């Protein structure tokens, strides 16, 4: 799976740019968890088309399987999606996930990045207590 390791403010995250193999099934989550572990980060920023139609169509079960796997392994994922891709049951999933700490979607790349890095900071500060 194609990715880039990014660093901002001394923190690393994995970036899946808009072109490349999309996330379609649970096996893709396994590959991404492995990539995160190999690179010493559990933060993942996914752009646009890297979330497949199968992922966005909740009836396939792909999103549930992937996000469950991420929750178990402590991976946090932010997605950058246009409003045109957020519809139906997936829109409901986003509303629910906005209360959690595993997955969020944003229209703006910088907002998604900010959430990821703030999520890391909150984990780091709670570990220091």
Secondary-structure element series: EEHEHHEHEH
Low-confidence stretches: 123-129
Note the gap between the termini.
Answer: 37 Å
How many strands in all?
A: 5
Structural class based on helices, strands and sheet pairing: alpha/beta
Tell me about this structure.
It is a single chain. This protein is of the alpha/beta class and 129 residues long. It has a single domain (4-128), classed as Transcription Regulator spoIIAA. It is 46% helix and 19% strand. It has five helices and five strands, in the order ββαβααβαβα. It has helices at residues 26-38, 53-56, 62-73, 88-97, 109-128; strands spanning 4-8, 11-16, 43-47, 76-80, 103-106. The protein has a five-stranded mixed beta sheet with strand order 1-2-3-4-5, with helices on both faces. α1 runs parallel beside α3 (62-73). The protein is globular and about 40 Å long. Mean pLDDT is 88; it is low at 123-129.
Spell out the key features of this protein.
single chain, 129 residues, alpha/beta, Transcription Regulator spoIIAA, five-stranded mixed sheet, 5 helices, 46% helix, globular, disordered C terminus
Question: Could you give a quick summary of the protein structure above?
Answer:
The protein has 129 residues and is of the alpha/beta class. 46% of the residues lie in helices and 19% in strands. A five-stranded mixed sheet has the order 1-2-3-4-5, with helices on both faces.
């Amino acid at each position: 799976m194609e990715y880039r390791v990014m660093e901002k403010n001394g923190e690393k995250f994995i970036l899946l740019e808009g072109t490349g193999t999309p996330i379609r099934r649970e096996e893709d989550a396994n590959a991404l968890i492995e990539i995160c572990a190999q690179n010493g980060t559990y933060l993942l920023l996914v752009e646009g088309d890297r979330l497949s139609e199968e992922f966005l169509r909740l009836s396939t079960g792909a999103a549930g399987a992937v996000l469950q796997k991420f929750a178990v392994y402590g991976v946090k994922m932010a997605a950058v999606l246009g409003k045109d891709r957020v519809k139906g049951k997936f829109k409901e999933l986003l509303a629910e996930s906005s209360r959690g700490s595993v997955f969020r979607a944003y229209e703006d790349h910088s907002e998604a990045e900010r959430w990821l890095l703030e999520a890391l900071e909150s984990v780091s500060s709670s570990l220091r207590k």
